[in-house]
Amino acid sequence: MIYYRNESKDPYYNLALEELLTKDETITDDILLLWQNDNTIVIGVNQNTIEEVNNDYVKAHNVNVVRRLSGGGAVYHDLGNLNFTFIFNKNKDNVRNYPLFTKPIITVLQKLGVNAQFSGKNDLEVAGKKISGNAQYVYKNRIMHHGTILFDVDLTILPQTLKPDLTKLQSKAIKSVQARVTNILPLLDQKITIAQFKDLIIEELKTTKGTKILDVSPELVAKAQQLAQAKYRTWQWNYGNSPAFNLENKVYLQDKGTVDVKIAVEQGIIKTIKIYGDFLGSKGTKILESQLVNQPYNYQIINQLLNESEVKAVFGSNFTKDEIIRILIK
Q1: Contact 238/154 with Cβ under 8 angstroms?
Q2: Is it the case that residue 244 has pLDDT exceeding 80?
Q3: Half-sphere exposure of residue 278, counting CA atoms within 13 Å on the CB side?
Q4: Each residue's pLDDT tens digit, 68-90
Q5: Which candidate, 95, 194, 212, 73, places its Cα nearest to that of 143?
Q6: Model-level pTM?
């Protein structure tokens, strides 16, 4: 395994670097990145940015907003949050295997006396409170798994930056986003810095994976800066155009995620369709959406067009074709 040092706090550069390392077919080694973003909301690839962020707060406090390649929900990062990224060769054992990738993080936390456990579809929790969320992205034969670690985040800012999804909170009988999360630092008997915590993760993987430490090459830095400018800093990538819709349905399924479907239908034909949500499939929604455009808005037709394996690739292994069809056709 290679650990690439990355001290950048620029979210646009950091996500560009992640993408380049994932898609570089000359690299076959496993990769580890540990990185931080300053004052940033990171949006899942399938989410509607306008509906997720508190735009008044974002503008007033100059919060960065950037969309990532993977699914899942929106998260707020400050310098008290540590992000980790693993990039591996894809195989049948690691695709959608979230516990496998989070195991080193859990091991380090347990050595520090924090009883962290994998929970739900993509979280790490301590005593029922979330300390980490995770997501994955697959490119050809490579899989990127990344996650957040709430080490010492300002939890008073967190609920101000995001609009809570009331369908999720109501189903869990929780009154606020803030009530669901906690930091690691207060749980430690012996206090350490986030830099020391990062070093412990590196040491764990040096022991178990023989990890070697490298600097990002100047050439790769330049490419990441170019990609950040061309893609990750653009309004089109982070917000995108929002066409008019006349049919909408938003459903939260326990332990699976939220699916928010918006469809424009004219004379019984689907003219535009956009599927948003925090589901965790390894395949984006665009191919499925393109299959449905110009098709009749009809149960039998949609049932014929969709297949079970495609649904699981787009939405996650816990979803079924019937569940998605019931969301598409109210």
Answers
A1: no
A2: no
A3: 26
A4: 999 998 999 999 999 999 999 98
A5: 95
A6: 0.82
